[in-house]
Fold this sequence. Notes:
395 residues, alpha/beta, Rossmann fold, Serine Threonine Protein Phosphatase 5, Tetratricopeptide repeat, nine-stranded mixed β-sheet, 14 helices, elongated, disordered N terminus
Amino acid sequence: MRVFHLLGVLLVLLVPPAMADPLATPDRRERVEIDSPILGATRQIVVQLPEGYADDPDRTYPVLFLTDAQWQFDLVAATFDYHAYWGRIPDHIIVGLYNPVRNADLVPEPDPHYPSTGSGDTYLAHVTQEVLPGIAERYRTNGIRLLFGHSFGGVMTLNQLLSRPDAFKAYIALGSSTWVSERVLFDRLEAAADRDFGGAALYMAVGETDGGATVPDGELFAERLETLSPQGLDWVFEITPGENHFTNVPEGLHRAIAHIYPFAGQQAALIAAGEAGGAAGVQAWFAAQEAGLGWRFVPQTMELSLAGFALGNDGHGEAAQAVFDTLEHRFPDNVEVVAVRANMLGQSGDVQAAIDVIDRAIALGEREGHPADRLQAFRDYRSRLEGRIEEGQGH
């Protein structure tokens, strides 16, 4: 039976001062104890909840699990916070797993060079049978789970992928010691070659100046993956230029997020779709992203709003309206999307429609507590639009 004990609130939040207000709520972190029959021990985890978690009791979240919380938690949590703050990725619940006996926890087979290694499979059972259900019971999760590990934590991450890939939707393995235990991960990769990985995403990276066998064995592991070409696995392996075993973590983490949630290039692609196919092309583009990426598709609202603006400014009015219709349907509380739509209409000469839409943006912003300076900018824009009406410009 799983027993979770709340140990207390952590008041640790490492964010730049300029971003402290939107992110710094003191009750976002808590420590929890898990009494584990599988391990025969009590383990600790730390959980960070997204900003505003308590405000919407119906909202659910993806969860990122990470090993070596005693070292990695602040960096990983702050990085995910940063990307979520700028709309690149969804807000995540972050769960840090403490590994007080990390050699035993993270390495699946004994290695004579590293004492106590070899209990990694037991630790996987603890994670999948005790931690995952416990987190799902305690917090509002949506079934999307990601796993992050570095060094021996990367070994654990890859071992989980090769043993039971359905436990997580995405895997991040940085600086993985694929050479450990006489390359046991290579053997497990061969054994899993015919498995369907169910659309899992995998990002692997090693630092260019990482010592020992980590870089060459990482390359060999990736080469074997390419040869086997396992079904349903979207994977990337990179050598991070100029980074070592430790500095690879922040750089690799950013690149891993971009692989899991492909946000680059959305604006240009949507403009091209609208120019080629009009409103139908816009709708087809959104449908293709959903079909191809599923939960990994996170529309970049500002970039896509600016795509709508560009389409309207270039005479593709129906395509532009389709962009904004889609974004407003998906993000009904996004004030800036509505404001950019008003600007597009004003730029296109439809001044009265622009006034109507900026009025909607002002009303929505007042309801949502949008920053006062932005609301004043909307009101100033409305005044300029009224001036154009009085001068007989637009319609």
